[in-house]
Amino acid sequence: MTRILVERALQPTQAATTSQSRSTPFDARSDLELSRLLAALDEGVAEPDVARKDHRSQLREVADTCAAVLQEKTQSAEVFVQLVVRAERQRDYKRIDSLADALTLRFAPSEICELARSQNIVVRALAQEALAQVPTNVLIGILHDPVDSEIAREALQRQARDFGSEQARQIMGVLDQMDLDAEEV
Fold first, then answer.
1. Where are the domains of the chain?
2. Which of 3, 55, 90, 106 suits 133 as a labelling partner, its CA being 20 to 30 A distant?
3. CA-wise closest residue to 116 among 136, 132, 96
4. Closest alpha carbon to 136 in 178, 115, 176, 165
């Protein structure tokens, strides 16, 4: 399946590639395989031994194709981080914007919370921005999760402060009151 995805993406006709790659199923295994292939190709491009310029450009072309397929299909937080780091290294800010747009469309709120805990500052900022745009009701549901509750709380604070969300402000008031009550006990 992974080979088919890459072969179709490498075909010269871009219009056919886009429609075919969207109809091809994508799974976690393909995600992992393409991620590993991309890492290996990027290493190959960076190696000084790759003396022949045409060989290096071919490696770069296949790596860019793998990255494009992953960008279009991935639902993995780890792969998302890999793509952001790669785009950041290449100073490809347009790609970083595209990746940011994909966050709320393709990733579950729990995955976005995981990204908000990333060691990479760019990934963390993108995830925090995406969470601030998640519907308040979804963030309220995350408050019950012991791992993600603090991240959801920060997103609610941001919605109340930066976006003037009355619902978020009310929830934060209740949460603050609950914290005071818990401290008194």
1. 1-74
2. 90
3. 132
4. 165
